[in-house]
Amino acid sequence: MKPHVFGVRHLSPAAAYYLEAFLNDIQPTAVLIEGPSDMSGLIPDIVKAKTRPPIAMMAYTQELPVESILYPLAEYSPEYRAMLWGANHRAHVEFIDIPSSISINFREKRAVGSSEAPVNIYETIANLSGEADYETYWERTFEQIRSLESFTKAMNTFAYELRELEEENDSAPEREYHYLREAYMKLQIDRIIHEGHKPEKVVVITGAYHVPALLSDAELRVDVAALPKREVAFTLMPYSNYKLSFQSGYGAGNHAPAYFHMLWECMKAGDIAKLPSYYLSKIVSDLRESGTNRSTAEVIEATRLAAALASFRQSSATLRDLRDAATVCLGHGHFSTLADSCTRSEIGSEIGELPDGVSQTPIQDDFLRRLKTLKLEKYRTNIQNQIVLDLRENRRVKSKEAAFLDLNRSFFFHQLGVLGIQFALPVHFRQEHASWAEHWNVRYHPEVEIQLVESTLLGETIELAAAYQLKEKLNACQNVADAARVVRLSHACGMMEMMESARQTVAMLSTDAADIVETAEAIGELSRIIQFGDVKRLDTTMLIPLVERLFLRGTLLLIPASGCDDERAKAIMKAISQMNETAQELYEHVDEKLWFETLSELYLRDDLNPLLSGYSCGLLLEKSKITSGALEEEVSRRLSPGIPADIGSGWFEGLCMSNKYALLSRSYLWENMDQYLVTLSDEEFRRALVFLRRSFYHFTAADRSKIAEVLGSIWGFDELEVSEFLNDALTEAEETVLNELNEFDFGDF
Questions:
Q1: To 10 degrees, the CA torsion angle through 232, 236, 238, 244?
Q2: At residue 453, what are phi and psi to the nearest 5 degrees?
């Protein structure tokens, strides 16, 4: 006698349904399941009454970087039903596949030697069957079987054909891996029999591909002790239907978990004919909730149409048939009308649940504890919610915890962000003076659990792990800007000790800082903390002397750095803008007088980059540090005949980039620009266009019209004439000139 081998697809309702029937017939004393054997210890938690799939078993390495293996389970997974059956019938249940501590080593080796053949195999099967895709082939061929005997015969036939097809296409590493797995599973089966279970009372549940090997009398040898191992740990985690749908990239997957859960419910109820109306009604219900009304009569017509489409293949309606019918009858020929409803009906937003304390790593436990403490448990859902945090003290509540609830939520969210745990993502929004507000998009999904587990080696709590990660970032810093970013991150996380360590690193690196761009970035990071530090109730006064020193250094670096090309000038322009903002916001702490003296020198120097000279001129104009007379004189000088086009127009571009609105009413500027352009040759004019186009890009259409009116006035036209001229259609000659300019190759400039 041999043990029974039952072939399944890992996320197949029909396989789960007929496996339960098979187990009821055989009444085995041992149920052996294809799954990592070192995960058998998770089975007692999986079968607990309060465990609700979808869930996933996870193995992860005990050194950085963390690598992991996931084994997802749905309510209708055959493996899950087998575990439940074994628990309810007091049968021995265990996993018998190669341990994850061994298989995790084969991932990279198999990836290097792999090809796209497995995907092509399933496409080939679909093509041979005449179906549009493999999922439809599987559903029509296997999910619609109506007896245990027919299902087992069909699966066994499929198993041998699939294996023959795959063996022709598998890479050498893939074949080696399959051989090791099957040899190991046969060893475990033999062990169970030697332990006293009768072969006829042993049921082995495995993917269809492995059925022929496990039924074969051929002896497979494997020296388990010789296989390389890695230290791994295990956990259970909630999973989601959305994540399950991504398992469809291989033959054991499931592209529509919510739909197949409907199929499972219909099979359990003994009313499979209910499935079409069940699915279509769900779509209509969702459409109605979104404001699109559809009638019961349209559902009936869609059900009839799906049955008619399926009758061409002498089968019941598949999901593809139902979708086509829904498009015609419910979408009125447009799938886009019901695309979102189909997604919700086919994939769903369900997330599994585990009883408290089940197989959690310390950091997962801390995550759940923080959710509870911060009243965030209701956001543990796959549906995205936006939270607006008010970081100020709430004086309307009695306890300190409640008064600073949002502030502590902010610290928590930022700590998760440092760890790359995407439970809460910041939303950028305009806030002129509301430094107390933060907007976050919050959504729980299985990746959160994976990211938590991957952080478990960094620390036992979220805060300890974040501190470790920040320390690593700090150790990797090569300049003051990088270190200042760690100061800001530490401040956002509410971690003062880490913030002080980062401050000391900035102070140390600042002594050798010789790059104005890096220095300005550091100033910007630190000045924002000083400006808004009070709202987070963290002492930021120790940063002020550091900003003072950095600002002085940046000021002294500006002039030497400004003798550069235009590409470098763009970065320095951002640095100037940042330092100018700091001078405005922290004028009590930085040397504002020296800063403006340095900008004045920059705007008057002819040997420095003209973009930067023009830009500094605009900043000084904005602060009323330049009189109209001085500006007119400088404009005349910069845009005088004989000044090269790239220098004159470049200076004007820089001027416009810093303070374009202050220029609109200054007619002398446009008179000088007009006179300057007239002096240019055709080639020089085209060269000047490079800069002028960039200059006017920063003006709105209304601003450009205003400039045109000013120029029109200079040329002797009134505003009405200019307006009419601007709104007239272009003449053929004008279009020709513009086309020539548009087609001109500016690459050499």
A1: 60
A2: -65, -40
Burial of 720 (0-12, 13-18, 19+ CB in 10 A): exposed
Cβ 651 vs Cβ 692: under 8 Å: no
In a domain, 731, yes or no: no
Same domain, residue pair 668 and 579? yes
The CA distance from 440 to 613, in Å, is 41
H or E element, residue 632 = helix 628-638
Taking a C-beta distance cutoff of 8 angstroms, is the pair 663, 656 a contact? yes
pTM of the model: 0.71
Query: Based on the domain organization, do 22 and 75 belong to the same domain?
Result: yes
| pLDDT tens column, 689-719 | 666 666 666 666 676 676 676 667 767 676 6
Domain that holds residue 159: 4-249
| Residue 176 CB neighbours (<10 A) | 15
Residue 108 sits at the vertex; the CA angle it makes with 362 and 459, to the nearest 5 degrees, is 15
**Same-domain check for residues 317 and 197:** no
pLDDT digits (tens, 9 = 90+) for 548-576: 999 999 999 999 999 999 899 999 999 99
Residues 232 and 310 in one domain: no
Single out the residue in 316, 346, 376 at which a domain terminates: 346
Please say if the pLDDT value at position 111 is more than 70.
no
Element (H, E) at 490: helix 480-492
Split into its structural domains, the chain has a count of: 4
Both tokens of 193, joined, read 């029999």
pLDDT top residue among 451 and 87: 87
Beta bridge partners of 94: 32
Average pLDDT, integer, range 572-597: 94
Q: Residue 649 has which token pair?
A: 């127009």
Q: Which of 56-70, 297-311, 349-363 has the highest mean pLDDT?
A: 297-311
Best CA proximity match to 201, nearest among 346, 85, 91: 91
Say if residues 557 and 514 touch (Cβ distance below 8 Å): yes
**CA angle in degrees (0–180, nearest 5) for 242-247-379:** 25
What residue type is assigned to position 370 of the chain?
A: R
Residue 258 structure tokens: 């919510």
Query: What DSSP letter does each residue of 379-433 carry, written as one string?
Result: G-SSS-EEEEEE-S--TTSSSHHHHTHHHHHHHHHHHHHHTT-TTEEEE----SS
Q: Interhelix angle for 78-88 vs 13-26, to 10°?
A: 30
Tokens of residue 338, six digits: 């019901």
